[in-house]
Design a protein that fits this description.
With 155 residues, the chain is an all-alpha fold. It contains seven helices and no strands.
Amino acid sequence: MKIDSAKFSVLLKPHYNDALKYSRALCATWSADDAEDVLQQSFLLALENFSSLRDHTKFRSWFFKIITTTFYSSIRKHFWKKFLPSDSDRSNVHNIPDVFNRSEQTENRMILNKALSGISAKERAAILLFELGNFSIEEITAIQGEKAFPRSNQG
């Protein structure tokens, strides 16, 4: 099946910066290169599967779901890297990367990154989807593949 890369680019363009911020924030405890790898893998997966997106108005949530899934896969890879022999020094794996320009880095942002690194990946993704992506709770639930909780009718 032919991939409409021009249409993909048009749909991606307004969401690129938010996707980049989201990827960098998700990978805040890894290196900046890892965040870029997650985003690049997401671009490839999205482009390969673009023909499966029937409703182009849902591109944004569809693409962020791909980023989230790619991030979860990367977590597993990072976990197993600990058990594989490597010649490289792993001392920088848990440092907070230079996600934002150092001149713009504030104490509050560093505190936020530290707090985000202290919660589970799924919780971090949910918070970032809400705060950076402006997704609703229902959209986040769908992106993360969770079942929605029934709303209480108590008032």
